[in-house]
What we know:
The protein is built from 21 helices and 24 strands.
Amino acid sequence: MLSSSDFASASWELVVRVDHPNEEEQKDVTLRVSGDLHVGGLMLKLVEQINISQDWSDFALWWEQKHCWLLKTHWTLDKCGVQADAKLLFTPQHKMLRLRLPNVKTVRLRVSFSAVVFKAVSDICKILNIRRSEELSLLKPSGDYFKKKKKKDKSNKEPIIEDILNLEGSPTTPGPPVSPGLYSKTMTPTYDPINGTPASSTMTWFSDSPLTEQNCSILAFSQPPQSPEALADMYQPRSLVDKAKLNAGWLDSSRSLMEQGIQEDEQLLLRFKYYTFFDLNPKYDAVRINQLYEQARWAILLEEIDCTEEEMLIFAALQYHISKLSLSAETQDFTNESEVDEVEAALSNLEVTLEGGKADNALEDITDIPKLADNLKLFRPKKLILKAFKQYWFIFKDTSIAYFKNKELEQGEPVEKLNLRGCEVVPDVNVAGRKFGIKLLIPVADGMNEVYLRCDHENQYAQWMAACILASKGKTMADSSYQPEVLNILSFLRMKNRNSASQVASSLETMDMNPECFVSPRCAKKHKSKQLAARILEAHQNVAQMPLVEAKLRFIQAWQSLPEFGLTYYLVRFKGSKKDDILGVSYNRLIRIDAGTGIPITTWRFTNMKQWNVNWEIRQVAIEFDQNVSIAFTCLSADCKIVHEYIGGYIFLSTRSKDQNETLDEDLFHKLTGGQE
């Protein structure tokens, strides 16, 4: 028989600090425990000893030295490795966090500090009524990010607290499986698809989101434009290296907020991280579309992405139009909703789906890949040669372009055949100057081949440009996305076309507008205020009839058509190289860019990727592509885990389909992004 002294020697004292919710100071509680006590039993002992009756269900143990949560309550202390010297904290898993949204509004809400960030973001998006949470993530900005903002607020004598939308009463605790994001084809719309206002009667039926209609409007409506002074305060000219440093702050999706050193009530940025916006639907996505529009708007205004002056004016006209409509929409009462028989609509959709659309054209599409044939001008840049375009007869078939000296020689050998799979396609357009050019950067063994094509008119440009964009992704003109792409390009060109015949806006409207709010500070400095206002109103004539949500979607589309769209930059050192380069990560490719000149050196497509891995000891990412191409690089501006997660995340997002009805394979995400560290 064991004596009581023998039994006591197998147990030991453990000190646990308790985070009392109602008291400022943490208290130490000493417990006598043994190694075979499981974590759940330890928590039970702790609560019994504290002897305060309250709901302890959200509390868990945090091990400070190991920087981890003890969430497996059935594990024994021995199995966890907890000994007498362990510093444990008994603390709530859900804590307050301040999030700066893309529309520069700050929301304060309760977030899980113990769940991995991927799950925490999913819960946050449920509260904010944003579908497709996998496209967003949390970014911890550099130390001076918010300081600049506060200086600005002091000069305006406005306390920063006014900006915060408090959603404190809405903890992101696991709710029922039906979240506000989930919908079926027959579900009643949550938002008016024309103006983005909440459809009040349905908000309460289909949403477990705690957003009131008022809060929902704050998130779904565009904010009034910032003053030019505020813009100038926020604006910082950034080189590619500066942009690369900004991207160092993305949190690791596979670890919790607490494990990454995030403090209670800290301020983080909630941003769209991955630039593949799946299934944008005005009926359900008013908040998502508005936040996307705002992220795009700030990227343009602060010149985080480059665009031409002509494009800047279109963005300005759309912003002006959206801000006018948003003001009028907020003052109207939208109680009279148009009754739509959703079941009827769903049945007609199903009918079209079952009939397979237009069956007559289906066979044609399979057997006959369209081709383009026309006279275009071509130019290849060489040193010390002036830009001289020469006319050739071009044929575009499959994913390649062949050109001949003239049409008669079409059956013979072409002068050259260009394979566009994996190439970069950059628009080179000035509508006012009737210049419709396409710049092609075609990957070759030692870098990129640069080729310029010049079209005669809009229609020719739209057809060839759309064909080039599809070919770069490995698709032909037989693909169903070809015609919509042509129409998209044409509509964008028409928006650029400043119609001299259109009536000039009244002087009253010009006086009413503050044009410097809608363009970047650098662009505003180039023009006088009146001249800028007149040019914005001129461009506005082309979009004046657009409904609110369509204007936001058009802004997002125009942003997506910019050459630099969707590129996230990192400073890296390639294996074997003696100098640093910029790595651009996009949804379908990686680009090596010269850090000094900003010129792309090589492109690698994800479709050609065979495998990628990380050597965690030397923090090096290694990637293998088809045709025995392999690259390796170390990350200098960020942890290599961030870049690795970006690549894996984009590959994960490419596996989504509408058939899944929004159930995400979270395990697959962690498998592709975790890197088995």
